[in-house]
Amino acid sequence: MGRVTEAIKHLIIINIIFFLVPRMMQGLNIAEYFALYFPKNENFGVWQYITHMFMHGGFMHIAFNMYALWAFGTPLEQMWGRNKFLFFYFSAGIGAGLIYTLVNYYQFNNALDYIVNANVTQESINKILEITASTTGEFIDKCNAVLVSNSKIIDYSTNDLLGDNLIQMSNFYHTPAVGASGAVYGILVAFGMSFPNAKLALIFFPVPIAAKYFIPLMLAGDLFFGVTRYSIGNVAHFAHIGGAIIGFIIAWYWKKNQFRMY
Hints:
The chain is mainly alpha-helical.
């Protein structure tokens, strides 16, 4: 690791600027322009596949990402050089955003199909997608108000699935993705492929494990939480997996072809 390499230094500086400026200037909300929104949301923009990588939800979020970027990205930039590292970083981050969007789009449509099959009208669905609420209970109450006119009142005692799918549809539609985690996971995978015997450990599980075992275990955890929805907090697990997949493909290709002229 050692000193901060050129590309990583500038990436960290840009991330810190994006993190601090909105907090220093009250009323400045850049998230609606730079966070990655669901494609059907009116705030969505193609540029967000890049800009969401510089947005973070809180201090611990940016602290962990920037530490991982420095700790695992430094030996990769030293090995590959600045330009190659930057290409890898942005490819993993953009790929993470695209895969995350595809998974969300699939899950959104599954929830929407259930709601449509429950005879909820398109007009009611559009009104529900406009609802903003601070709690699940408030959201359901507002949904009930919308659906009364359609004679489709949510009753958790008899139709849990309708309520669950309405909540899921709304969450996918309104919740943007932020953070460099997808790109960082790509870096983690490339680090593990390049330095498989390096010892890694988690703060809450301080037992050193070789990278070739540690990183697959982390990815397995993300896959489990992403599929089962047992995640603690608002974590984009499929963005992590997406970044890891793109990082693996690029790192594998480079490693395979490193002794070839082209």
